[in-house]
């Protein structure tokens, strides 16, 4: 795939970029090691000052940065602004809390025959971040902010269709005052990732992306004995029980399925509704989805823009076509619009059976699958009948049902009566083939630290 900005709303190639040469990659690796040697010794106060400056720059440049992301991958400009602001929030969160989150942890010295005993968090070194296009700034930032505040240095290999966002990240941190080499962007294709990851100067890696990509990175890292954090695909359930506020649940369901034009790993994808309220929820859900406006992502009134790439839309078309051919009913949408751009309408499919690909595969577009169940046991069984385990939603006012969902849903995150999202304050990640490790919160900043045991005798 060429490294280029191709506007998804028009199909026009805006700008192309040369891939980093082997010599440029080598220079970046050498600089990362050189910078880490001194950067790891900087104080939390110094790093926090630079990180707050990065947040200030993000706030000041929100309009131009949002427009850049919308041009590169088609998200609505309103959601792009929110993404920029969320990145600024994460920068400030880690600037404020990193020192406390990484403070020494005292142990019972007398129990281990020491005068003093404690555990200390120390940075590992250059970390390779392999990031996707769907939240091009946020997903890179949720690695960068904690990693830099912990004293690590970053090497970013971004998706080939968001090169301007990738280069902006390096420029942002340099302008904020971070030492040159603390965060570098490598404009390389996927073919060069293995060689970079195997380089002994790279000590760890994090990847957000597909299951096959995660498996490939984990295999190489395992062979090299290097730490990895993987945030992979999801097929999140959205369960609606009889006690739920159906009007609100249906409104949130439409947003949950079409967030980021439906291209989100934690978007609700499978809507599992108790049969006692299935008819009413279906009517409300269809109305909410059909009311969404598809159009130019640069216009503030647009709810849904184009899918990011032509191949991405083709994947959605094929999955929907397979379901319809095998008996699924289209409740709304389902037809590719004419004209330029890679648009696809909000779509709901009902009558899903296990033979259909949409039953087991992740659908990365504004298409919902709707199921009916008889009780909570069937709801949980269906929710867990997937290889994925990232996020989940459950809507109920019943405390016992809430407890069941929290206990029994196989996912890294469970949101009750609210849409799944990410916060700097809370750990983010999944189980099963949705990956391992955690981003954000205290857990995220500690992932790429050496937890060093210190024992001091008399």
Automatic annotation (TrEMBL):
The alphabetical list of record keywords is: NADP, Oxidoreductase
Superkingdom, taxonomy of origin: Bacteria
How far does the signal peptide extend, from start to end residue? none
Segments forming domain Aldehyde dehydrogenase:
3-454
| InterPro entries assigned | Ald_DH/histidinol_DH, Ald_DH_C, Ald_DH_N, Aldehyde_DH_dom, ALDH_GabD1-like, GABD/Sad-like
Family from the record? Belongs to the aldehyde dehydrogenase family.
| UniProt-recorded name of the protein | NADP-dependent succinic semialdehyde dehydrogenase
